[in-house]
Amino acid sequence: MALSTLRIVWLYPDLLSTYGDRGNLLVLAHRARARGIDVEPMQIRSDQHIPHTADMYLIGGGEDGPQAVAADRLLQDGALSRAAEAGKPILAICAGYQLLGSSFYANGRAYEGLNILDLRSDRGPSRAVGEIAGEAAPQLGIGSITGFENHGGRTHLGEAVQPLARVTAGVGNDGATEGAWAGHVIGTYMHGPGLARNPKLADLLLGWAVGVNPAQLPPLDDTWPERLRYERFQALQTASQ
Amino acid sequence: MSANLTPRAKFATTLLRTAAALSRATGRGDGSVIGGRVGLIVEPRLLELLAEGRHVVLISGTNGKTTTTRFTTAALEAIGRVATNSFGANMPTGHTTALAKAPKAEYAALECDEHYLGQLLDAARPKVVALLNLSRDQLDRAMEVTALAAKWRQTLEASAGQTTIVANADDPLIVWAASVCERVVWVAAGQSWTADSAICPNCGAHLDRFGEFWRCTNCGLNRPSPQWSVAHQGEAVVGPDGRRYELNLQLPGRVNRANAATALAVASLFGVDPAQAAPRLSEVASVAGRYARVERDGRQLRLLLAKNPAGWLESFDMIDPVPPVVLSLNAREVDGFDTSWIYDVDFTSLAGRKVVVTGDRRTDLAVRLEVDGVDFLVVDDIRAAIAAVPPGPVEVVANYTAFQDIRAEFNRVN
């Protein structure tokens, strides 16, 4: 592990931080420090320049108005697009996920997105609120996923991205697939926060950021996150019976 | 008051009381909701008719409604009888029951759910409306918070008329909603949770904050000068003329001193001398179980209800620094099914003390505390939690249904 300090940028908490999004930053920092990796968390407000030199970027969810403002400022800044091109890991949740695509719907109209991921989002027939679960793409090696979703949008994937998971409960993109990934960029509707409930997804991002296979990261005692995952999957099974 | 009720409304009121009494007698609750529902079926205008001729104050906001309503009731009782929904039934059915049960009360202090403010403004024609604060709460089933502020603003503009608003000058969402009204009394009631008002609700630009002051450099929305505030030193409220009203509250925390300031501001609009009202607030020992002290097996528990991130942070500010802490989390329908908000709460202040977690979603809390580096013990229920801590004082923090479960264990303590 060549990095002396892992610099994780959390983008625009002033605009996009609605459902415990800070938790993803906390979980990444916790899991990195537990392996002896120093972490410098950087909270960047929407009136600040985005640093080019960070090792990972996080962006969260929010209401329509702030989502449109965030997309506009990200387009003007340009640093997130350059980070994606440079292969830096990016994790985007919900409204943050939608704005990485070519277009998204907010305030009753379509807005231009960042075009980092080949997808577009529009409005669904109803709001998707509740537990979500799925089987992640096998190439990612993270098994099943669990989270909580709360969004009115539906997302349509293009050919240049893969779905993050096949949905087994909940809605996700469209009831069949959930989230998307390409290169080191991952978008998802899972909050909960997603990384607290999916430690392997957190380690995948950490592995990308420090340049090692996640399987080579020293293992952590995940008794409590594993118990939480078990409970959430059980709750879905009970509900479907 | 009831002397002017139509025969139909009188009949509806009688049925309401009977239904509420039956519900209580059969152990189904305090009967406020079912009673009101029955009364409103018989006479849909019952709430309006029962409110007519009374001096009404509505109290709303995300946190502190029940306590502020209790304080306001105590203050108004200095000059007359007060009808109030003291059981926390804060929707129109509960308001109807509160008024029906107190036909002779010329005053009414009604706690109002945030989503029913407009309906209550129209039905109860309040003399005063107190607006405490707005922050994120049960987002999977309620409105997002800026949208709620916008709805309040519209409602107040349409219906506030001659009503005086007592509003929190420290909360930008409250200021924006209330500033459409002609008569506003501002209270510096504080804001423990600023994350939902980083952005100007009026124009979307960043708010500048320096100490307690805030302003939008783009559109000019700013913190109004408060007439009422909490004293910086000691326990007192400072009134519009600079006079200090000493408090000796049994309820803990800065947030309850702010609730007291709001209650005194409201009471003074009804003609109550704050000097006469302030000592009455000190008589409030607990509010529907909140802040209640109960004892079991040599452990003295203090029960704190906290339903959302702002509430949890406020309770961490209230608790004594030494005793063990029991945290209990549920995610049933009225709590909201989504627990992700616990990541908006900073638990690091609990590090180094004994922390016991319980509730339906104790595992969520365990994962959360591990991330914050706080040692914890997970137990099945409040009995096991009590057994897990040594005799002596214990602080208990729980969200809504978790709190009710604990209250039930202690005979529904008030």
From TrEMBL, chain A:
Pathway it works in: Cell wall biogenesis; peptidoglycan biosynthesis
SUPFAM superfamilies: Class I glutamine amidotransferase-like
Keywords of the record: Cell shape, Cell wall biogenesis/degradation, Glutamine amidotransferase, Hydrolase, Ligase, Peptidoglycan synthesis, Transferase
Keyword Ribosomal protein (UniProt): no
Residue ranges occupied by any CobB/CobQ-like glutamine amidotransferase domain in the UniProt entry: 7-198
Record-annotated membrane-spanning stretches: none
Active site, renumbered: 94, 191
Residues at which substrate binds: 127
InterPro entries: Class_I_gatase-like, CobQ_GATase1, GATase_3, Lipid_II_synth_GatD
Matches recorded under PROSITE patterns: GATASE_COBBQ (PS51274)
Function in brief: The lipid II isoglutaminyl synthase complex catalyzes the formation of alpha-D-isoglutamine in the cell wall lipid II stem peptide. The GatD subunit catalyzes the hydrolysis of glutamine to glutamate and ammonia. The resulting ammonia molecule is channeled to the active site of MurT.
Homology family: Belongs to the CobB/CobQ family. GatD subfamily.
Name by which UniProt lists this protein: Lipid II isoglutaminyl synthase (glutamine-hydrolyzing) subunit GatD
